[in-house]
Amino acid sequence: MITHEDRSVTKKNRPVAVVIGVALILMALLQLLPFYVTLTTALKDRTDLSSQWILPFNNLFFENFAIAIESGNILQSIGNSALITLVSTALTCLIGALAAYPLARRRTAFNKAVMFLIVGLIMIPPLSILVPLYTLLSDLGALNTYWGAILVMIASHLPLSVFLYAAFMRTIPLSLEEAATIDGAGILQVFFRVVFPLLKPVTATVAILTGVGIWNEYALSVFILREPEMQTIAPSIAAFFSAQSNNFGAAAAASLMAVLPVLVAYLFLQKWFMKGMVAGSDR
């Protein structure tokens, strides 16, 4: 039942809610503005010098997308990125969950030290290890190979994965695992049949953060995947933009095609992503 005091509090908070709502709408519009300008640019002919703020409703020019596909080899690059991203993300989720399980359940001094080192690894910028990493990959014959790129992506994203999984696992009651153990389940059975199915929210979070990070990765990919047919989407768009610097429409079309797979994946996983981001925050 709503009391007079509740109505009074609601009326007092209404202006604050309106201000917050307006601020959120402005922030959303600010975030969407680059996509709108990119869309209007991609749908205009090179000779169309009209304002980029107005969509060309009558003369949509889709030839820019054909130029990006034929001249920029964008579809091949999207395929390379999709393969590396899917395999790297799946292995990062699996290895991260397996590594986080003992760290979350056995809070020994050694495990705490290991967790501290893992958190420290998150802070290391990838480019600081470029020279030794490039030398190691060259010695292993892993340059310009899918498996070499996948190993690098897994190694660079695994620390954050372990940190998020460990934080989430601490919120799962131990009684579930104890009951499974009493019923005769081994440790792997407890993990894969009891714990792992409960990790959907954090797995969605890790998958999105890892997947988007690998999809957009440029700094390492441009050095370890130098062959044009092996390039991922970010270096490929950079090279295409340099070659088509006088054709902004084709460059904008290539950028739109690159962002589409990530956008679709986020729309499907956003519910689990939000749950995973806030899980464990009260511990």
From TrEMBL:
The keyword Cell membrane applies. The chain crosses the membrane at residues 16-37, 82-101, 113-134, 146-169, 190-215, 248-269. It is found in: Cell membrane. It comes from the Bacteria. Keywords: Cell membrane, Membrane, Transmembrane, Transmembrane helix, Transport. It is a multi-pass membrane protein. Its main location: membrane. One of its GO terms (cellular component) is plasma membrane. Residues 78-269 form the ABC transmembrane type-1 domain. The keyword Chloroplast does not apply. This is Raffinose/stachyose/melibiose transport system permease protein. It comes from Arthrobacter pigmenti. The lineage of its organism: Bacteria, Bacillati, Actinomycetota, Actinomycetes, Micrococcales.
